[in-house]
Write a structure and sequence with these properties.
This protein has helices at residues 24-33, 98-102, 143-162, 200-206; strands at residues 41-46, 49-52, 57-58, 64-67, 73-80, 83-91, 114-128, 135-140, 168-179, 186-198. It is an alpha+beta fold. The longest helix is centred in the last third of the chain and has 20 residues, at 143-162.
Length: 207
């Protein structure tokens, strides 16, 4: 059995393909609104709470966050014996094959400990609340995180078709949970709750 057979299914990860989401003017407005080129701290979801940075600072539940529609990246994360390894990511809108990406990973010494999982990332910027102005990157390969970010990506892609001028999702960072059947305990999963859609110019003014 080779490593490709251990690659998890991509779970219908959205690929942005609508040209109106990636025209040069839209990309320039996105760069202005979301401080393109800045080095972001990482947003994380831990035990039902949204935190950021190495110190895992908890975020306000009341804050509103703008999601940069042009920041999505999709790809794969390699795991070996439970430890994160290499990753391969491509920008949204760039066609890719899960199997072709997986072929770029090195053959592991022990394939039984080797796993490859889907990964998604996107940038968010706080536009109201005590965290206003804070810009973060959420990158995840967990099932709950990938599903949440993929659901958000699908909503943004659908909005782009319906109204290309309003493609910035304004969300609250929330969570839900379910009872894990095997471990008999609550398992928390992240949720991006969409409040509305704004345009890139308004987003830049709010932040």
């Amino acid at each position: 059995m080779n490593e490709l057979t251990k690659t998890e299914e991509p779970r219908d990860i959205t690929i942005f393909s609508a040209e109106h989401l990636f025209d040069p003017q839209a990309l320039m407005r996105s760069a202005d609104a979301f401080d393109a080129g800045s080095r972001n701290d990482y947003l994380s979801f831990r035990d039902g709470c949204w935190v950021y940075g190495a110190d895992r600072i908890e975020l306000s539940e009341c804050s509103l966050w703008a999601v940069n529609p042009h920041s999505f990246q999709f790809g794969l994360m390699e795991w070996y014996d439970g430890e994160a390894g290499a990753e391969l990511m491509v920008p949204a809108g760039v066609p890719y094959s899960v199997n072709e990406l997986a072929l770029q990973f090195c053959n592991p010494a022990d394939e039984s400990k080797h796993r490859i999982s889907p990964q998604i990332s996107a940038d968010v910027k706080c536009v109201s609340g005590e965290n206003k102005g804070l810009q973060l990157t959420y990158k995840t390969s967990t099932k709950g995180g990938v599903d949440a970010l993929n659901t958000l990506a699908q909503s943004i892609a659908g909005q782009g078709v319906a109204n290309a001028s309003l493609i910035v999702a304004i969300v609250t960072l929330t969570a839900t949970h379910y009872m894990h059947r095997k471990h008999k305990r609550k398992t928390y999963v992240p949720v991006f709750k969409i409040n509305r859609f704004d345009n890139l110019t308004l987003t830049g003014q709010m932040a």
